[in-house]
Design brief:
This protein has 438 residues and is mainly α. It is 55% helix and 1% strand.
């Protein structure tokens, strides 16, 4: 009898606890569903049945603006180009919702929604840009971008420059359009993408991020990092191979006759990743699969409320391979620069920075140096600060041309193709075949 009374008392206490939990918003709304890892980046909310729990629209708009700034700064040098003003560039860099601009990204079928405001209200690039001083240039990204954009605007004053490379190139051969884009990819996309998954232990994964949200803080931060990387949600399923992704970086996966930039478009870092995989001659790397699958697996673990240690293991795969993609891309441009330097000298042993023959060299050099800027925006770097500084000092802040002297030119080329490449190979373990083929 006493045992029965004790049992009834425990039942009463348990029922009181359950009733008490019904007043708690989290317990009332939470959907306890364990899921398998999906093939595409689509996850239902744990709080509202039938609704997506994925949200990273601001990351998408930032990707769009970086792309549009590249299109804008390239335009004055094109055959149909016209002058642009500092205000044109600043209005994108320091975008305010009141502008209500639309993107210049074109696809076939056409883009579903081009207006930034209709996708997301955002903080401007200027408001979120990383404020670290850039190695070798000794200025923040914000200060450098302002100076480089001003120089493009200044070059536009002379209408004879319109439609030529001189409008986006300084007297030392620095291609502003290329290095502006890469600096933004580092100080915005890479910096933010890494930061959102840096301190995962601090983020709540039980309750809604806010009263109006249907996802947790941990879920949302993971999603935002995915958004900055630039994958289409169907990256693994809607493309034949990496070459298909490179040649056609979008796919109407839901067959609605439009390309949704939030889910069906491949932005810069994801596209660059496909390029490095496609350029791997021995197949020893598959950065795309490693990174995309880790984002999928990590998000699944977060949804299922697995241990933070399991999530961190997927995070580490992402940050390590993301860095390796950037390093491999620098190697790619070192190879391009090496070929350019050999060809340039054979064509004109006195070619200067603004020679027509230097156009490709200046462009590839600026890409190479720009990707090196990107590499510094990662607290998880595998490359040491000492090695990074050595590479910065070796590359300098502008390309060396034949006019600078035969000895200096040859020494510079040898330093890039030997000393600098050796550092990258020893740090990241890239194969000899890939070091040559990239």
């Amino acid at each position: 009898m006493a045992i029965k009374k004790i049992f009834n008392f425990l039942i009463l206490i348990l029922s009181m606890l359950i009733v008490g939990c019904e007043d708690n918003e989290v317990a009332e709304d939470y959907i306890a569903e364990i899921i398998d890892t999906p093939v595409s980046y689509n996850f239902n909310s744990r709080f509202v049945e039938g609704e997506t729990g994925v949200s990273y629209s601001e990351s998408v708009v930032h990707n769009m603006i970086v792309t549009d700034l590249k299109l804008l700064t390239d335009y004055p040098a094109s055959e149909s180009g016209y002058p642009i003003f500092l205000e044109n560039m600043i209005q994108l860099y320091d975008y305010q919702d009141g502008y209500n601009f639309s993107s210049w990204i074109n696809t076939s079928p056409s883009v579903l929604e081009k207006f930034y405001n209709n996708i997301s209200n955002i903080e401007s690039l200027k408001d979120i840009i990383d404020d670290d001083v850039i190695y070798g240039f000794d200025e923040t990204a914000d200060a450098l971008l302002a100076a480089w954009m001003q120089q493009i605007a200044d070059n536009c004053i002379d209408l004879n420059n319109i439609g030529t490379h001189r409008i986006i190139t300084n007297q030392d051969g620095l291609n502003f359009s290329q290095i502006i884009q890469k600096t933004l990819l580092g100080s915005i996309n890479y910096s933010m993408g890494i930061k959102y998954i840096s301190n995962l232990e601090e983020y709540d994964n039980i309750s809604k991020k806010s009263e109006n949200d249907i996802f947790t803080e941990l879920e949302n931060n993971w999603d935002k990092s995915f958004g900055y990387f630039g994958f289409a949600t169907d990256y693994n399923t809607s493309y034949i191979d990496d070459l298909d992704r490179i040649n056609d970086p979008y796919f109407d996966s839901n067959n609605d006759g439009f390309i949704d930039l939030k889910s069906e478009y491949i932005f810069d870092f994801a596209l660059i990743t496909a390029m490095r995989d496609d350029g791997s001659s021995d197949g020893s790397v598959d950065f795309s699969k490693s990174i995309f699958d880790a984002y999928l697996e990590g998000r699944t673990l977060i949804h299922n409320q697995a241990s933070i240690e399991e999530v961190l293991a997927q995070r580490d795969i992402i940050v390590q391979n993301w860095e390796r993609v950037i390093a491999a891309t620098i190697v790619h441009y070192i190879n391009e620069v090496d070929r350019n330097m050999t060809n340039l000298y054979s064509l004109d042993s006195l070619a200067g920075s603004l020679s027509e023959l230097s156009i490709d060299y200046n462009k590839n050099w600026s890409d190479m140096r720009g990707f090196l800027i990107i590499l510094q925006y990662n607290d998880f770097n595998q490359i040491s600060d000492a090695d990074l500084i050595t590479i910065v000092q070796s590359m300098g802040d502008s390309p060396v041309h034949p006019l600078d002297g035969n000895i200096e030119y040859n020494n510079y080329q040898n330093t890039l193709s030997n000393t600098v490449k050796n550092i990258f190979q020893s740090t990241y373990g890239f194969s000899d075949a890939n070091m040559a083929s990239w």
